[in-house]
Design goal:
Helices cover 42% and strands 18% of the residues. By secondary structure, it is an alpha/beta fold. The chain has one domain (9-211): TIM Barrel (Alpha-Beta Barrel). α4 packs parallel to α5 (99-106) and α7 packs parallel to α8. The structure holds 6-hydroxyuridine-5'-phosphate (BMP). The site of 6-hydroxyuridine-5'-phosphate has 20 residues, from β2, β8 and α10.
């Protein structure tokens, strides 16, 4: 059972299990479970193995499901309900879907995380110009956190200040962002996938991030 204290948490990496190789993920999850805050599970695993895969992983730690829900309220709510009934604690929704859809999901999940701004360059086209409005909306709807990019760490600070919400920040390592910079700018949790998952020694890689040996 993890202590949900956003200010004092030290195991603040959320490990993105972005592959459909369940056995590989299970063995890495077993190895590093004590060292990460949560596991993030998305489309590759869910499409290949179905929702029941969440039951298996939820025995090993806290699960955040990331299928970036982006639909009308009734459909978004039903999707979120299905995910939650399989042991997911957290659910990620796209912020751009707006207030009514996010509210619908809020009502059926334990923890709601809203994407305010994304880490890839394409975010600058449409999402980033709206990210501050999304952050305020998420705060008004009592989300548990925002997703904000480690590839633009200064945006973490802005979005955190505007919303007062915890920040989950992806984009470290393979996408060019820095763990240290994300934390310095206010990230509470850092979402990392490939840098750890493709490493020869995932546990060591995680410890390198925590100790400052991997930036
Ligand atoms: P990686 O560390 O391998 O780049 O993986 C990043 C993870 O964070 C992926 O699961 C991706 O879906 C997610 N993510 C992201 O990269 N940028 C965002 O803006 C939002 C995300 O959820």
């Amino acid at each position: 059972m993890f202590v949900r204290n956003y200010l004092t948490v030290d195991r603040n990496i959320i490990l993105a299990l972005d592959t459909d190789d369940k056995d590989k993920c299970m063995s890495i999850a077993r190895l590093v479970g004590e060292q990460v805050y949560a596991f993030k599970i998305g489309y590759p695993m869910l499409l290949n193995h179905g929702l029941s895969v969440l039951d298996s992983f939820s025995e090993m730690g806290k699960i955040i499901v990331d299928i970036k829900i982006a639909d009308i309220p009734d459909v978004s709510r039903e999707i979120a309900k299905m995910i939650t009934s399989h042991g997911a604690t957290g659910v990620i929704v796209q912020g751009f879907i707006g207030r009514d859809s996010i509210k619908a999901v809020r009502g059926v999940v334990k923890e709601l995380f809203v994407v305010a701004e994304m880490s890839h360059p394409g975010s600058l086209d449409y999402i980033s110009p709206q990210s501050e409005k999304i952050a305020i909306m998420a705060s008004e709807l009592r989300a548990d956190g925002l997703v904000a990019p480690a590839t633009r760490p200064e945006r973490i600070k802005v979005l955190k200040n505007i919303s007062g919400l915890s920040i989950l920040s992806p984009g470290v390592g393979t996408q060019g962002g820095s763990y240290d910079e994300a934390i310095k700018n206010g990230a509470d949790y850092v979402i990392i996938g490939r840098s750890i998952m493709l490493s020869q020694d995932p546990l060591q890689k995680i410890n390198e991030f925590y100790s400052g040996r991997s930036k």
